Amino acid sequence: MDRRLVALAVVGAGTIAGARVSAADPTSPLDSSVRLSAVAVCERHDPACDWMATLSSLERQSMVRALADKKLAIDPSPWGKTISRVAVFNDRVLAEGGSFIEFFNHFHVVTKEAAIRDELVIGAGEVWDQARVDESARRLHDPLYSSVVAAVPCVGDDPQHVVLLVVTRDIWSLRFNTNYTFQQGSLTNLNISLSENNFLGTRNIVAGAVTMDEGALAVGPLFLDKNLAGEHINLSIRVDDILTRQAVPVISNQTGAVQLPPTGDPTGLEDAHRFHSEGTDSTISISRPLWELASEWGAGASFSHSFGVARIFQGAQDGIGLRSFACPDDGVGPCVPDEYEIHRINASANVVRQWGYDLKQQLSLGDSVSYQAPFFLPSFTTDPDTRTAFAEQVMPPKQTDSGPYVEYSFFEPRYAVFRNVGTYDLAEDAQFGGSLDASVQYGLEALGSTHDFLRYSLSGGYTLPWARDGSLHAGAAASIRRQQGEYIDNTASYQLRVITPSTKWGRIVFQQSLFTRWHDTQNASLSLGSDSGLRGYNVAELFVFGSGRILSGLVEARSTPYPVWVLRLGAVAFYEVGGVSNALDNMTVFHDVGFGLRMLIPQASRALYRFDVAFPLRTDPGPFGTQAGSFHFIAGFDSYF
Hints:
By secondary structure, the protein is mostly beta strands. The chain is built from seven helices and 34 strands. Helices cover 9% and strands 50% of the residues. The longest helix has 14 residues, at 57-70. The chain has a 20-stranded antiparallel β-barrel. Strands 11, 12, 15, 16 and 17 form a five-stranded mixed β-sheet that branches. The chain has a three-stranded mixed β-sheet with strand order 3-5-4.
């Protein structure tokens, strides 16, 4: 169903499906069936609808304050009327929780009205168009800036006019941002930024950021401006110095035992309390995107480089370390780890033309250049046979791809608002209908490419609505490279995802996917385990180099969020299945079950705190040997989907 409402509200009381919703108690949680019934009434342009009932409790709280502050009343029938003016109300970040909590609003710069108006695709003097009002709300639904967005038709100066009231609520912007994963007793991933996500109220980001894995930290400044000079130009700049976190131990591929770090590997902040730079990276991009559905032209250019160390991590019963390439026959001596230096440079530029109404079509022309070169680390063994085998089986080849490309795509601009799928209690925009993307790149030695080649890529999918807030999605993708008369580095995949309609207690999500790679020349890897899927198993416990298949499936039951103070709390139960192999006919399939807790602080972020306990149902007979019935604990700050 094409939902033509994003977030509209009425102050007052009404009766929907036998349930009473009162503006006097905007915090009261609503049964999802009540909210969806209210949406259906409003979609029929019925002036008797209670649009306040279409909102979450957090949205209703901001809505009540906005209408009181602006001294406005809802116009239940805005269709066909002209917008006389646009009023903007940006709510306080911390408007609930008591005087102590609300005191901290003094340390947040509220987004300027001009920054909100710049995102709207409809304005004064235009006839109320629900589709364009919805599109404006989708543009403001940016997880970096806003937790609440609502576009409200209010009574104008005469019966032929309405006031468009845009209500937003910032996410706390002066912040110490974190995104992390804790698994197998180790902090395996951490993203930190000390940032002002709404610099001077302009929705620009100025930050010092840290990205960490088991072996290294990338540290540097970040700047993001999504509306440069008020021209809807996106500018993003990040520059990092890559520092060694620690010399990482090695996991024996024969016994699964954790060995000491390789002799000669540099130490770093965690194990030697010193700064050791092992590389740099940078990204700069500037683009004029198709910022609204009516946009006809767009263009962009980008450059990135990364000079650092590639490490392949794997978990075992005693911890996480580097996957080993080779070990002595006796299994006692030091193993050769999977780590090497890699230099990558990428640059691209493109221009895009968009047309169509019910079917949006885009044609892009561009050129891209990519370069990669691997190197042995100084600590790597000097044995010539091992070095030759490692280069052939683990390192990607030294290679430059350079050439023009053409890309055609289409999608149906049909949208709906979901809740409680990727986050809790906050609006999530979903797109229905079909989509397709097809591209061809022609690599030319004359333009610096290592080889002449043709790269064909095709992806597509279709999403169907299920009842009022469920969906069924099927998608597939394929990519083939023709070079020197052969087809190499070929990939194909499909995904099926089912989101059941919500009930009073929650909803169920089913997801299944298969990815395959064949004739691989890049020595790429496929893995499952722990946070990447199969939460009951060790990190990357199921693993294959080069050509291979990866199968994964998930069924998760997610509860309806429950408001507690400024929090939203919930629980999940899940079953997972998956396997990794060089071929489907010899794949061993593993299973696990588990449960978890979810917590959202909407004033601080749209991402969830998640805590999961998983129990494997099948023993892994390999050297990394997860036993059936053992448990694994994972904590993270993001959404699992």
